[in-house]
Design goal:
Elements (H helix, E strand, L loop, with lengths): L2 E3 L17 H5 L4 E3 L2 E4 L3 E4 L7 E8 L5 H15 L3 E9 L7 H12 L7 E5 L3 E3 L13 E2 L3 E2 L15 E5 H6 L13 H11 L13 E4 L13 H6 L1 H4 L14 E4 L4 E5 L17
Parallel strand pairs: 5-6, 5-7, 6-14, 10-12
Antiparallel strand pairs: 1-13, 2-3, 3-4, 4-6, 7-11, 8-12, 9-11, 13-14
Length: 286
């Protein structure tokens, strides 16, 4: 089942107040019971044999990884079922030919998913990372959380200890408190370190699972990274100047196209570069 929503019907968190009616409320007549789960179109699942402690939104920044997505969904949905979580999967698709902006898509995913229901926490998940172990619990404990301790392409180690990318989780309150994510990183690199600086600036540290529990397999087929962000070094140097004025509070984007697929909700969005009024000193790019 594919269902396209007219999102003009719904209030958007970054523009207006919450509507008392959520998209989930509208979809309730379409629910199905699948074994021990209640299924809502668009990839939202609720266990029926227990009261789930957490409501978890899985946010996937995405463009052109169509061979990766079915592999990811094949592994992640059964794992989350076994963990007895209530969860929804949102694919946030950059719908233009500009350089890929992962962090801005994270902001879009956060705001748009809140139109569906009031999620407790959000896991930002690269589509090419598949977890090895069910013990890597995707509930909302220990947030902010870096779920990865190693991947096969790095010899099951981290690139560096302060690394905070690939698969990360934060609560709704933490994301609002840190003003979401930077909108300035177009191309590969830099946004993960900027996000980590934001996390530390509001007084948090990160947790990780133990050893092999946090291992991931990186899908190798059709794996092509976005071009490097040549301004990432300069952008990261001045993260503190932007922190309070660049994120959730200044993001603007066209009304997205929301399509409910059987296993996920696709949110296609045309994001554009924003004007941020900050003076930068001359700084080399690479």
């Amino acid at each position: 089942m594919n269902l396209r929503l007219n999102v003009n019907l719904f209030n958007r968190r970054h523009k207006r107040d919450y509507s008392p009616l959520t998209i989930e409320d509208i979809l309730l007549p379409s629910i199905l019971y699948v074994k021990d789960y209640l299924y809502i179109p668009g990839g939202h699942w609720k266990p029926t044999d227990c009261l789930p402690r957490w409501k978890v939104a899985i946010i996937i920044p995405f463009r052109d990884r169509y061979s990766h997505l079915p592999i990811f969904l094949k592994h992640i949905i059964p794992m989350l079922h076994r963990q007895k979580l209530e969860f929804g999967i949102f694919v946030i698709e950059q719908d233009n030919m500009l350089l890929f902006n992962r962090a801005m898509l994270l902001n879009v995913g956060f705001l748009e998913s809140l139109n569906f229901t009031k999620w407790d926490c959000f896991i930002y998940h690269d589509v090419d990372h598949v977890p090895y172990n069910d013990g890597n619990y995707y509930g909302c404990i220990g947030m902010p959380r870096h779920f990865i301790t190693g991947a096969d392409r790095w010899g099951y180690k981290l690139q560096y200890n302060s690394f905070f990318g690939a698969v990360t989780g934060m609560t709704r309150g933490q994301i609002f408190e840190m003003n979401g994510f930077p909108n300035v990183y177009w191309g590969w690199g830099g946004e993960d370190d900027d996000i980590w600086q934001r996390v530390k600036s509001i007084g948090y540290t990160k947790t990780r699972p133990r050893s092999y529990i946090g291992w991931y397999d990186v899908i190798k087929q059709d794996h092509k990274s976005a071009p490097h962000n040549k301004e990432r070094v300069a952008s990261l140097k001045y993260w503190k100047k932007r922190h309070l004025i660049d994120g959730l509070n200044n993001i603007v984007y066209d009304e997205p196209i929301i399509t409910l697929y059987s296993l996920y909700t696709n949110i296609a969005v045309n994001i554009q570069k924003l004007n941020i009024d900050i003076e930068y000193e001359d700084y080399p790019t690479d």
